[in-house]
Amino acid sequence: MNLITLLKQTTSASLASLYQVTIEPDQVLVNATKPEFEGDYTIVLFAFVKQLGKNPELVGNELGDAMQKALPTIITKFNIVKGFLNFTISNDYWLEFIQQLSPNELLPPLANKRKIMVEYSSPNTNKPLHLGHLRNNFLGWSIAEILKLQGNEVVKTCIVNDRGIHICKSMIAWQLFANGATPESSHKKGDHFVGDYYVKYNDAYKAEVAELVAGGMMQETAEKKPQF
Fold it and tell me: Which terminal CB of the chain, N or C, has fewer other CB atoms within 10 Å?
């Protein structure tokens, strides 16, 4: 039985138990929860609230509580937004669902296999690594492995020496403002040291543009004028 069918049947049974009414499972509308709200699936209460003659908030709380008790390993929590009852489905349910799928159901084989390059995470050489780079590494590796399982030839790559105008900005700022400082003399990690001068360049650039604009120059012209 799929999850939506189970939610519909449990809704029907819970309403019968709570209010002694007969509402068939096919009368229950279940949608994916809108991204701006918490939850995975939403039961639309308007379809039977009028028949019950009760406040949607009251029905939502009573029905949500009953369904969570009926499906304790599937529904972890619920919330009500006006006439919509939103359910959060447990991670254990999704893991078990995936484990029960056959390889072909999980990743249907492709008729036309390709050679694909997946690039990640190629960090900016001017800035320190952070948690977002780990996220990108996990995503990139996972995508590459999924494509590989479908039979594609996958090449993984990470550009670790992507030097361009950003490194030039740091170099110019270092020449102008560092007074010969080094990572060792300033007791900073090299990536933090270079990143600081990248920021200094942009601060100086913005200050110069503001000065030119204050002197009567158009913003667009000031931004294109050679800096420093």
Answer: N
